[in-house]
Amino acid sequence: MVSNAPEDYDDDTESTMSDVRTGSPAPSLYSFSSSVDERFMPPLQLRTMYGRILNSQNDTYFLPADHEEHRRLDVQHHQYTLILGRLYPAPELVWRALRPRPDRRPTILDVGTGSGSWAVDMAREFPHCDVVGIDLAPPRIDGKQPSNCRFEIDDANLGFLHYIDSFDVVHARAISAGIRDFPGLLRELAGTLRPGGVLLLADGEQQLYDENQRPMAFTDPDAPGTSWLHKVFFATYNAMKNRGGNIDSPSMSPTWLRAIDCLTDVCWHKEFIPMGPWRYDDERERVLSELCRENCMRYISTLAPLLLSEGYLPESVDQMCREATAELSELRTHIYTRWNFAWAMKRPPIGSGVNNVEH
């Protein structure tokens, strides 16, 4: 049990602190196998800034880590799942990697687990597998957490040498804002895979697209007709870049995956989604556009700590966020977002009978 936890810490929570990370500003890794209330976390893990709770380990990632943000991430999780039709792309590769084995239990790693929804859902879909979710702050799990799922608090920027050849599937979704060296992270994650294992990536772009799906250029923020939503996304993009995040990684991930010698079968999928139901061709796209709008409005509400920390005046942030939310609510802007998925397999041993076909 954690020695520096408050006296009212929940004794039913199984947890450990271990000095397994070297060179970390937070020398201990916190691991737990049931839902944790952030009020009872060791003070090292969380901080309050500008009225929101943030992680205290990584200044690159400056979005909140509180209950409100986790509910947004649950909306986003629903959106991702609807885009793919399931929890993951490349189902044949994933099913093969996670097939039951007589000698060991297959394992899954979720990097940047957020609210923990993906990790929990994978644990339920694959009860014969063990799932580990890591993030800078604890998730908030609604309901009973599966016994084959646990969570660790750690910073992915510190590397994964403690997890070499440990996982059959590794998943990283919407983490680019907090990663300082994304190509380096991908090499680390490839190293955590067992031969035949699968690496899955997903992220949305900060780049917005017009109603013809053309990239929206940003020149003068005060130019007549400039969308408030576009202003907010541009300010956020620059703030995240200034903090060192690899915010352009969604479009670059396939190229970076191809550069890793131990990976093969590199593929990707990109999907445009209207930000709100200003247009849709079928019921699926209508629901996706509604989810995208809700996710975006909740996302805008998270941005104050990031923008204020970069020197924006409070009244300017309030106006941008208020007006952008109104544009979305009233469908005054016809804008697309683009969501990117990429995946690859770690080369199986020669003679294993698994084909290596790069697409």
Automatic annotation (TrEMBL):
<feature type="region of interest" description="Disordered">
    <location>
        <begin position="1"/>
        <end position="28"/>
    </location>
</feature>
<dbReference type="InterPro" id="IPR029063">
    <property type="entry name" value="SAM-dependent_MTases_sf"/>
</dbReference>
<keyword id="KW-0489">Methyltransferase</keyword>
<keyword id="KW-0808">Transferase</keyword>
<dbReference type="Pfam" id="PF13489">
    <property type="entry name" value="Methyltransf_23"/>
</dbReference>
<dbReference type="GO" id="GO:0008168">
    <property type="term" value="F:methyltransferase activity"/>
</dbReference>
<dbReference type="GO" id="GO:0032259">
    <property type="term" value="P:methylation"/>
</dbReference>
<protein>
    <submittedName>
        <fullName>S-adenosyl-L-methionine-dependent methyltransferase</fullName>
    </submittedName>
</protein>
